[in-house]
Amino acid sequence: MGVKNQSREAEQQRVDTVILEIKAKEKELYTKASGLKESVINLRKNFWEDVTVNLDEPDDVIETQASIKQQAELLSERERFHGKIGEELKTLKRLENSPYFGRIDFLEAGQTESEPIYIGIASLMDKHDENFLVYDWRAPISSLYYDFSPGKAKYETIEGTICGEMTLKRQFIIRNGLLKGMFDTGITIGDQLLQQALGNNASTSMKSIVATIQREQNKIIRDEKSKCLIVQGVAGSGKTSAALQRVAYLMYRYRETLHAENIVLLSPNPLFSSYVSNVLPELGEANIRQITFQEYLEAKMTDKLVVESPFQQMEYSLTEENDEACTVRRKSIDYKSSLTFKSDLDEFISQLQNEGLLFRNITFRKQVIIAKEEIRDYFYSLDNSISIPNKMELVAKWLLAKIRKTERKERKKDWVMDEIELLSKEDFLHVYKELQKQEHIDDSGREEEYLRRKVTARAFAGIKKRVKRLDFVNVLATYRAFFKMWDPKNAPDEWEKICAQTAVDLSRKYITWEDAAPYLYVKERLIGEHSDRSVRHLFIDEAQDYTPFQFAYIRHIFPYASMTLLGDVNQAIFTHTMQGSPLIPSNLEEGVEKIEKITLTKSYRSTKQIVEFTKHFAPGGEMIEPFNREGNKPELIELGDQAGIKGQLNRKINELKAAGHETIAIITKTQEKSDTIYDMLKEDLSIVQINEESRSFQKGILVLPVYLAKGIEFDAVIIPDASFVSYHLESDRTLFYTACTRAMHELVLMTDGNKSPFIMESPKDKYDVRAI
Ligand SMILES: Nc1ncnc2c1ncn2[C@@H]1O[C@H](COP(=O)(O)OP(=O)(O)OP(=O)(O)O)[C@@H](O)[C@H]1O
């Protein structure tokens, strides 16, 4: 038997031993859990039996309360403990299938024997709880595995740096307790293992990458020092993967203080949210709050406003390229995306301290009871040194007092009697009981008085609630006034046209995407908003698609959160992001200490051939390095005209399917084009169309616009409109690049006689041409 086989056998034996240990632990936990379950059930059943209830004297009441509290605490403690055992069991189940994926032998300086360290998704101790059978991948010592190859190595602990020598680095593939593969690795973490991981078919949900995290990704994952970590990474470089493992790492590192609910991930679309939602549970961690920026803003728009989605904005600018309204809209988008707009708004808001704020009438039964002018005058009579939101609180107090006065007057009116007659039986019964308590049962005058009070209080409840919510401030009209009356310092070209366009939208309560964050910003500056202090860490994926204004707004609402921003300037697809480098708006850097920037240049998703083709039309593409995974060259199918496209699509899809590709995406520039393709193919193929509302997808043939494919990947990608007409403007470049880089194994481009100029930026030997 060779040395290799010997050690393989020894490793399998160790796997077996560890699994036996896991099973023993599981058994122990099952016994504990079933005892606990019974005790929880009994406690629930007999809750009241064990509580001494005596309400005779005040002291007895206090004692009873204490007894109930004690019983409830006991129950919840047991329930919590039961839940914890459930979690531990889940982790053990995962370990039972694959207890670890790596081993390093480390000889610590000053020691004589090297110690083997096995690394897996969670820690496991031996039965005496003395030695680690498996180390969690996030433990300090595990960083050796990701950061070093055999030779001198070191890692950081709270006590300081530990130096030594790594004498062995080994990787395992263990499935269902069987050692399927074992590699001793050199310079980087097992090219072989990574090759295998990347060569698989695309999945409909993202997978964790803990077994093959690369050194540069590990830096992102384990960064603890920076308040703001900015990652610029080329398409497929593992930004999203690193971000999710980073979440798991931070939750492990700060287990006592940082919980899933303190972390928010802003994702580019709902499809992406569900695509990545398996990673953390796979790592044994609870899922964090994942929300799109649009969903976040919509939740804050309490007024009945309709908000345009970023994709509607995108579709608009992609499909109406040449008309005048669109040109004005683009200028409007540019301005409203900028910090110049924010400083103009700030000036406008500070002027509102003196004049110009607009209010709403307060009406009751269709009568104005407090006129907006009266509210305005009261507001402006308040001391000018008080901030606008604080003044609003004072106005609300003043209004509530006035409303209560009106309420008292209203009680005597005839409409109240009419309403009393309409009261339900239950209402009467309730009043009767209340009066009984007050021992005024025979007093019919008191009864009417009580009923009148009740009816008016009910009628005024809504108004009071709205006043407390500061609804009397007309934020929409005030925001509109900026475009009607204000003369901003930095007004862009076509300002009047922009104003007219904005006024039309706002008057129909429609908030365009470019107005959404500015509108909420103004709203919060006027009526105040408690910043979201519960969020301690904010992750923003596809950060390049946020405008400088939106970033400033995010900083405003999460002033205390640390941030991790991940993006790729080459994939900046929104109209506003076409200008300059959008990933890191300079304002974000102001006032934020400890900024760290990391650049990822290696692309893991696509085959070498696809990366070699796409890098030529990515701005700054020379820095993109492919991972060494071989595949076919991208194929360019040149159709004489668009007539043959249906047949070619059918043929190509069948060919790709026959080659074993399970997820084949037809990625178009616009939703409009995606509709056309879907209609064309739906009779012949089982094809699924993805749109803005899609929340998940299954393997198969999909058709979708590029902006919905962000962050996602497919086995094969077909771009059916790779022609000049679709992609020729400079602003199309990033869209085209994003579409092409969704492919893992195969990329097919179809064009009419006139292909996109971006294709021609790639040398001819980087793709195969097939003329039809
Ligand atoms: N270290 C790694 N080990 C295994 N797979 C990896 C690793 N890094 C990246 N990948 C794989 O590469 C693909 C791309 O990763 P990911 O989606 O995180 O990249 P990205 O930079 O966010 O891409 P994009 O910006 O193009 O959306 C995924 O399939 C991911 O699993």
UniProtKB/TrEMBL annotation:
Designated name of the protein: Helicase IV
Keyword annotations: ATP-binding, Helicase, Hydrolase, Nucleotide-binding
SUPFAM superfamilies assigned to the protein according to its UniProt record, in alphabetical order: P-loop containing nucleoside triphosphate hydrolases
Organism: Lentibacillus populi
InterPro entries: DNA_helicase_UvrD/REP (IPR000212), HelD_bacillota (IPR048228), P-loop_NTPase (IPR027417), UvrD-like_ATP-bd (IPR014016), UvrD-like_helicase_C (IPR027785)
NCBIfam families: HelD_BACSU
Domain (UvrD-like helicase ATP-binding) ranges: 212-607
Xref: PROSITE patterns: UVRD_HELICASE_ATP_BIND
One Gene Ontology term, aspect cellular component: cytosol
Residues forming coiled coils: none
Any GO MF annotation of the entry: 3'-5' DNA helicase activity
Entries under Pfam families matching the protein: UvrD-helicase, UvrD_C_2
BP-aspect Gene Ontology terms: recombinational repair
Binding site for ATP: G233, V234, A235, G236, S237, G238, K239, T240
